[in-house]
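Appendix C reproduces, verbatim, an entry submitted by the partner laboratory led by Prof. M.T., so that reviewers can inspect both the input and the predicted structure.
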Amino acid sequence: MPYNKIMKQARKRLFISKKTGARERFKLIKLALENECNTLVFSLNDPFFTSKNRNQKYIKLAVTYALNIEAGGRDLSLLVPRSMFLFNRDLFRMVHGRRKASHHFCATNPKTTNLIAERAYKLFDRAMQYTTAPRIFHFLPDEKHEDTWCQCPACRAFRPVEQYIISVNTAADVLAKFDRDARIMYIDFDLEPEAARVKPRGNLVISGKD
């Protein structure tokens, strides 16, 4: 079934940072409800998904106010954790011949692709039962560093937006195995999808155009 047929109403989202304390969260949610927000978005490594005891109050809140629950945000680094840099430098982006742990990774390395698939599976598996159908996930690049990608010989053949799509496509393939109606929101860097040489998977939707 087409995505636009699945969505019964536009979703007005509140992205909740995992750094936001409990009291501040409820203040934000109350303010969002007053402004007709109907969707809460938790990071994929937020306690909402990682701790069953800590998500019950939010589930009750979601049921009470008929809120949708989505997962993700600026979560792209969860697919290739920076903690792996010391012993796996070839997974990360190259700048002037040197590998950097900050801001994204080497999208064309087959090892990176394999890791993204493994990590995406674990993240989706953990979050699937708590998200609202039709399920929406968000994998957005680092804020203010959307164009900061790898410059290794293989990656130089691809523009930053194309390296980004290569990465998110891998996660999209994994998501399709869990739920064929689920979608991943991504940003297109103001580039029309047909202008990219790397085509986004069918279950990718441009953020803000849902």
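The first strand starts at residue 13 and ends at 16. Additional entries are available on request from the coordinating office.
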